[in-house]
């Protein structure tokens, strides 16, 4: 879409009068048509005072115009203009013998109205003395069965006049089918001066033969630049930034680095990833945004920390809460049902035993030695056992993966935490907008960070990101503040030598930076928009920026102490408690009696179980009882026989002793 035009109507004064060549009604009709079709808001009329009647006639024929003044006197100053106000148009008239032509290149649009086609050579000579540009909007209206409208601009100091339209019978018969920048897309090899600094993945710089100005560019923004070069047909010359910085301002608003080059008009543009800020926009023009970004803090890979919840993480806190509630309520229900039903196994399901059964079954699926015999307790027992088994199987399946994950202890979680709980220094790339983020921030805490943790060390920081990354890896006293999408392309991030704090700051956009009022700004901006709308820009970006996450898995590493610590801690506490109990048992009678209570209770339960077994045996089979009694009788009979044999032996020995015959015992001793 064409921009709104602001016209300067220049009536050539050589041999020009209201009676020669031009008729006021034609001039008025041409301006009226342009106002209707081209959305004119302002017309600057520069002419000789002798053509006062022509201006009056134009005002008269354009019925919409309302004169603000009634007299037209020559102005004393070149810069003064007499205004005419209208609902749709704004006239500014100057009578200055065309000496104000110097301002023509700086107006949005200019219309030069000729009295005859013979004066084209004069117009070329006149325009040739003015510094026209590629983006100039100068049109020449030549009488030709109405008016032929030409557009005039320069490419590489060469004047170009192209037929723009034909005005006949008080209307334009046609307009160009292509937009302004499509008509001016051939720059005929025009040489453009550029500067750049490396910033992965946006741009890499490769300088040859150690020559400062013999460098080639590559990367995302370079690919976009090369596409524009092929479309617009221009060449470029690389100019190295004098201090290898992007540019920051001093107290007087003067910038150093690449921004200083643009501010001083030493280069035309910087086709690299400049952060668009309000402060920078005062001295440069930023093109259509190419990519967006945000900052993050980066720290060295944290050391492994003890994972206290390694064995509880497989189940959510809500699950553990439900298990806790069940462990406190179900034992009462089980114990009550066993007591009320007078279950034969009630000794095995006393209240404290019911608590132990429910807790161990729901958490560790530990089997119980006894099963209730009555219907209601048995159903409850089986349901609890089934639920415990299912929970245990789920927990066991998840436990392996949770134990394999190593938990990292980040030194801080956000900027406030960084400032209040740590003494880390903040490293960043000197001479960039990263420094302005802190230095010019409206937040006092960020300005404090600049004054205390950045500025004192700024001169010691490297000027390239690779060295900055190495700095924070080797020295854990630093944290790096940088563009997240840039740092994630570094090998140190991909291999988890450094990690990001998952908190985004200062979301902004990147774009090319142009010298203020550059003649190339609009044509570059137009084709950047075309690339965005056609999808070509996104295709280039996707080649360099992906959603690939760093590969930080350590599946081949042995399970560390930090994940087994909980189990080992429980084992150690168990041993310690056992030793303490052993000491109390040895030295405290009351403690021994307390332990004896539980021991006797277990024996009683065991005796009850034996009695129940014997009773069941008697009730089930009389034959088994007979066999049992017969077995006991046989054992007793054998015992009696053995005793009788021993008695006979002793009696024989006694008789031998009385008769003086040596006994077996005496002979053994002598031997």
UniProtKB/TrEMBL annotation:
Entry's Gene Ontology cellular component terms: plasma membrane
User: Where in this chain does the record put each Ionotropic glutamate receptor L-glutamate and glycine-binding domain?
Assistant: 201-264
The subcellular localization recorded is: Cell membrane
The record lists the membrane-crossing segments as 565-585
Membrane topology label: Multi-pass membrane protein
Q: Tell whether Repeat is among the UniProt keywords.
A: no
Task: Please name the Gene3D superfamilies in this protein's record.
Answer: Periplasmic binding protein-like II
GO MF entries: ligand-gated monoatomic ion channel activity
- Do you know which InterPro entries this protein is assigned to? Glu/Gly-bd, Insect_Ionotropic_Sensory_Rcpt
Tell me which UniProt keywords the record has, alphabetically: Cell membrane, Glycoprotein, Ion channel, Ion transport, Ligand-gated ion channel, Membrane, Receptor, Signal, Transmembrane, Transmembrane helix, Transport
Where would one find the signal peptide in this protein? Answer: 1-21
Q: Which PANTHER family does the UniProt entry name for this protein? A: IONOTROPIC RECEPTOR 20A-RELATED, IONOTROPIC RECEPTOR 40A-RELATED
Q: What is this protein called?
A: Ionotropic glutamate receptor L-glutamate and glycine-binding domain-containing protein
């Amino acid at each position: 879409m064409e921009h709104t035009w602001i016209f300067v109507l220049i009536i050539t004064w050589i041999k020009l009068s209201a009676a020669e060549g031009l008729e006021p009604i034609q001039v008025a009709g041409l301006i009226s048509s342009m106002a209707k079709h081209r959305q004119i808001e302002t017309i600057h009329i520069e002419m000789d005072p002798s053509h006062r009647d022509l201006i009056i006639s134009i005002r008269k024929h354009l019925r919409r115009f309302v004169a603000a003044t009634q007299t037209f006197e020559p102005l004393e100053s070149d810069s003064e203009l007499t205004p005419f106000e209208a609902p749709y148009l704004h006239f500014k008239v100057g009578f200055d013998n065309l000496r104000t032509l110097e301002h023509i290149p700086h107006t949005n649009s200019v219309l030069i109205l000729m009295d005859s086609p013979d004066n084209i050579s004069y117009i070329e000579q006149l325009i040739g003395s003015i510094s026209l540009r590629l983006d100039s909007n100068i049109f020449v209206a030549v009488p030709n069965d109405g008016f032929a409208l030409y557009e005039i601009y320069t490419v590489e100091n060469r004047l170009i006049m192209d037929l723009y339209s034909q005005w006949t019978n008080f209307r334009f018969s046609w307009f160009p089918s292509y937009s302004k920048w499509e008509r001016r897309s051939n720059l005929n090899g025009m040489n453009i001066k550029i500067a750049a600094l490396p910033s992965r993945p946006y741009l890499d710089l490769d300088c040859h033969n150690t020559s400062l100005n013999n460098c080639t560019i590559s990367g995302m923004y370079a690919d976009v630049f090369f596409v524009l070069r092929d479309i617009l047909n221009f060449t470029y010359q690389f100019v190295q930034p004098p201090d290898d910085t992007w540019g920051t301002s001093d107290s007087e608003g003067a910038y150093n680095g690449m921004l200083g080059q643009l501010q001083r008009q030493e280069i035309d543009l910087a086709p690299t990833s400049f952060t668009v800020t309000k402060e920078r926009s005062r001295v440069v023009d930023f093109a259509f945004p190419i990519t967006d970004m945000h900052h993050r803090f980066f720290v060295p890979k944290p050391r492994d920390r003890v994972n206290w919840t390694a064995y509880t993480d497989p189940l959510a806190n809500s699950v553990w809460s439900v298990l806790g509630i069940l462990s406190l309520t179900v034992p009462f229900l089980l114990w009550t049902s066993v007591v009320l039903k007078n279950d034969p196994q009630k000794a095995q399901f006393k209240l404290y035993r019911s608590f132990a059964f429910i807790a161990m079954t729901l958490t560790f699926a530990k089997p119980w030695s006894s099963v209730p015999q009555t219907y209601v307790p048995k159903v409850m027992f089986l349901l609890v056992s089934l639920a415990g088994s299912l929970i245990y199987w789920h927990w066991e399946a998840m436990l392996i993966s949770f134990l394999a994950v190593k938990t990292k202890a980040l030194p801080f979680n956000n900027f406030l935490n960084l400032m209040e709980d740590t003494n880390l220094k903040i490293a960043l790339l000197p001479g960039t907008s990263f420094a302005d983020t802190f230095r010019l921030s409206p937040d006092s805490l960020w300005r404090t960070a600049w004054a205390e943790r950045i500025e004192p060390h700024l001169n010691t920081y490297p000027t390239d990101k690779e060295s900055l990354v190495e700095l924070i890896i080797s020295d854990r006293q630093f944290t790096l503040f940088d563009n997240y999408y840039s740092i994630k392309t570094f090998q140190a991030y991909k291999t988890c030598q450094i990690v990001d704090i998952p908190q985004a700051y200062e979301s902004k956009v990147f774009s090319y930076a142009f010298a203020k009022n550059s003649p190339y700004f609009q044509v570059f901006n137009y084709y950047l928009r075309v690339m965005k709308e056609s999808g070509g820009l996104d295709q280039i970006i996707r080649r360099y920026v992906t959603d690939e996450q760093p590969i930080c898995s350590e599946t081949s590493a042995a399970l560390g102490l930090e994940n087994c610590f909980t189990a080992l801690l429980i084992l150690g506490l168990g041993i310690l408690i056992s030793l303490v109990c052993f000491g109390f048992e040895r030295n405290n009678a009351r403690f021994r009696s307390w332990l004896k209570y539980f021991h006797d209770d277990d024996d009683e339960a065991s005796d009850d179980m034996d009695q129940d077994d014997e009773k069941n045996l008697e009730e089930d089979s009389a034959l088994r009882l007979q066999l049992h009694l017969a077995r006991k009788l046989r054992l007793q009979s054998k015992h009696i026989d053995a005793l009788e044999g021993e008695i006979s032996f002793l009696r024989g020995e006694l008789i031998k002793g009385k008769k003086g015959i040596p006994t077996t015992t005496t002979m053994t001793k002598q031997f």
